[in-house]
């Protein structure tokens, strides 16, 4: 474990970066602000080192960030319709921070707080955060934990755990933005993706709330059951793509039985770097960075539209309000657990 100061927040709080290194020299660096992944580096097939996630150089940049680069998202990932939930006979109004909806738990979500380090070793680090009753407008005192592990096979595992003293919502994810040719390589449309999902959840309109139905991907631009370039169909004449300016849709994974399953496979266009995603979640949100505004990232690199893609494992969007979807409601005293693994390697 390597540690260094990452600078200070706007409020003057110190932020620390923790770096795990495996036997092959691959690194995973996270900061306690948002329990955020700030870099994942490894050698490509050409022997050069690539950093495959987008990020920033300072805590203030992350605080000003509207893209949630690399952050843990909670209590609820994705969108909640009209920023409203109903739990145990009570109505709760949440922060409406996205087209009248609540997105990623609002401006005071897990991405915006400093987590405590409660355990660390050569291969893993565990962060913990206590979210008080009413924080983010959700009920109950919740203790949340996230553990990052980097093994010698190139596997980055993220394990989430939470308990709460009232019925609440628990639906965590990580919002890493991947570019397998390097964070500084520009658009990702030539990189390849495969998703093990025969259905996706179409949205009502540009506010991106699902209709509640599961629609077949067959015969549509949303079919990634066989590996294809991310950009092959992204500009197709399709109403759903127009709503989001590309892909920003949830996929219903084929083998979502609560056990670890291969959900996705991605391949760089030039680096030779590949990534397989395993999860025990029911869904995965594919987002192709359609709303990354021109901005300065790590090392002065200029980021822009479609310079990365996200594979966010989670419950379906608005699942707390949609009876057709598996519920993210966590009962008082129960334990929420979820694991996702991003497994990196080189194409053979």
UniProtKB/TrEMBL annotation:
State the Gene Ontology BP annotations: galactose catabolic process via UDP-galactose, Leloir pathway; glucose metabolic process
So, what pathway does this thing act in?
Carbohydrate metabolism; hexose metabolism
**CDD domains membership:** galactose_mutarotase_like
Q: Identify which top EC class this enzyme belongs to.
A: isomerase
Q: Which InterPro entries match?
A: Ald1_epimerase_CS, Aldose_1-epimerase, Aldose_1/G6P_1-epimerase, Gal_mutarotase_sf_dom, Galactose_mutarotase-like, GH-type_carb-bd
EC number(s) reported in the record = 5.1.3.3
Kindly state which reaction or reactions the protein catalyses: alpha-D-glucose = beta-D-glucose
* Annotated catalytic residues: 175 (proton donor), 312 (proton acceptor)
Binding residues annotated for beta-D-galactose, in chain numbering = 78-79, 175-177, 248
Q: Tell me, what's a Pfam family for it?
A: Aldose_epim
Domain of life where this protein originates: Bacteria
Which keywords annotate this record? Carbohydrate metabolism, Isomerase
Q: Which Gene3D superfamilies match?
A: 2.70.98.10
**One term of GO molecular function:** carbohydrate binding
NCBIfam families membership: PRK11055.1
Q: Which family does it belong to?
A: Belongs to the aldose epimerase family.
Stated name of the protein: Aldose 1-epimerase
């Amino acid at each position: 474990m390597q540690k260094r100061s990452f600078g200070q927040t706007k409020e003057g709080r110190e932020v620390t970066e923790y770096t795990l290194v495996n036997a092959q020299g691959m690194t995973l660096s996270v900061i306690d602000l948002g329990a955020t992944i700030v870099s994942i580096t490894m050698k490509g097939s050409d022997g050069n080192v690539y950093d495959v996630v987008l990020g920033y150089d300072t805590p203030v940049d992350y605080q000003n960030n509207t893209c949630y680069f690399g952050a843990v998202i909670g209590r609820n990932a994705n969108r909640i319709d009209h920023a409203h939930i109903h739990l145990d006979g009570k109505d709760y109004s949440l922060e409406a921070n996205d087209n009248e909806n609540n997105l990623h738990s609002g401006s005071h979500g897990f991405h915006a707080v400093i987590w405590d380090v409660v355990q660390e070793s050569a291969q893993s680090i565990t962060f913990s955060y206590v979210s008080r009753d009413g924080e983010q407008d959700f009920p109950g005192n919740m203790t949340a934990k996230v553990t990052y592990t980097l093994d010698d096979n190139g596997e980055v595992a993220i394990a989430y755990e939470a308990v709460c003293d009232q019925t609440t919502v628990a639906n965590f994810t990580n919002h890493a933005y991947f570019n397998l040719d390097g964070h500084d390589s520009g658009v990702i449309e030539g990189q390849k993706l495969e998703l093990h999902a025969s259905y996706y959840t179409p949205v009502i309109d540009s506010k991106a709330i699902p209709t509640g139905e599961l629609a077949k991907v067959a015969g549509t631009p949303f079919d990634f059951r066989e590996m294809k370039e991310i950009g092959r169909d992204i500009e197709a004449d399709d109403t759903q793509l127009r709503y989001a300016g590309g892909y920003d849709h949830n996929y219903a994974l084929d083998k979502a039985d609560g056990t670890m399953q291969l959900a996705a496979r991605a391949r760089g266009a030039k680096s030779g770097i590949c990534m397989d995603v395993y999860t025990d979640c029911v869904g995965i949100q594919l987002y192709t960075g359609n709303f990354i505004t021109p901005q300065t990232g790590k090392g002065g690199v200029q980021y822009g539209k479609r310079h990365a893609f996200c594979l966010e494992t989670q419950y379906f969007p608005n699942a707390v309000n949609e009876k057709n979807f598996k519920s993210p409601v966590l009962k008082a005293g129960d334990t929420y657990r979820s694991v996702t693994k991003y497994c990196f390697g080189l194409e053979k």
